[in-house]
Amino acid sequence: MSSTPAHRRQPALSNPRVQRTRTRMLTVARELLPEVGPAGLTYALLAERADVTRQTLYRHWPSRAALLFDLILEGPDLGNYPEPGSDVRIVATAWLKSLRDGISAPAVRPAVLAVTAQADHDPDSAQALVRIVEDRHAAFNTLLEPSGVQIDDEEYTLLYGPVLARLFFDRGQATDAFIEAVVAQWLTTLRRTGAVP
């Protein structure tokens, strides 16, 4: 018998029923977020719409930042995530297009903006933001493994930074041509420093 109080126990994700409940809650949260915005996505509303208790929500996501984190990283499968490859340009271009498309999903965009906006004053959001960047950086380096190239934090920021600036600050479109130009400039910089051959 566990000594951890029931309201603090983590759900057993290996249990199919628990996994189905979690999937349903994320699906409902994705539907609600574009409709009500991050501030309107309360646990009370989500519990009501997903037909679960708030206690169930808190077991899965102890904070709203944790929920937003999962909404971002477990966004809808758009079917365009790149395969690992030996050509850095092709992998980087496909990865940026996938990033652009994922961030443009109706529930992901407001979740990213909310976590970013709250990071300065909410430690959970700050931690979620760091984990998102680390997760995506590691995933990108995994895609690059066949090329023998691994990029550091700074080189990673130089790649995705212009796309996020275009989408969030310029409020413009990160077209395929824009992404190809970003990758060309990024590769020029990396070649100059010797990070890529």
Describe this structure in words.
Helix 1 (16-40) crosses helix 2 (43-50) and helix 8 (153-169) runs antiparallel to helix 9. Residues 1-9 have low confidence and may be disordered. The chain is an all-alpha fold and 197 residues long. The chain has helices at residues 16-40, 43-50, 54-60, 64-73, 88-103, 108-118, 123-144, 153-169, 176-193. Helices cover 68% and strands 0% of the residues. It is elongated. It has nine helices and no strands.
Please tag this protein with its features.
single chain; mainly alpha; 9 helices
SSE blueprint:
Layout: H1 16-40, H2 43-50, H3 54-60, H4 64-73, H5 88-103, H6 108-118, H7 123-144, H8 153-169, H9 176-193
Helix pairs in contact: 1-2, 1-6, 2-3, 4-6, 4-7, 5-8, 5-9, 6-7, 8-9
Q: Ends: how far apart?
A: 58 Å
Helix content: 55-70%
Using the CA coordinates, give the radius of gyration.
19 Å
Order of helices and strands: HHHHHHHHH
Average per-residue pLDDT, rounded, comes to: 88
**Quantity of strands, as a count:** 0
Assembly type:
single chain
Shape: elongated
Percentage beta strand: under 5%
Main pleated sheet? none
Catalogue the unreliable spans.
Answer: 1-9
SS-based class? mainly alpha
SS summary, helix count: 9
Kindly summarize this structure in a few lines.
The protein has 197 residues and is mainly alpha-helical.
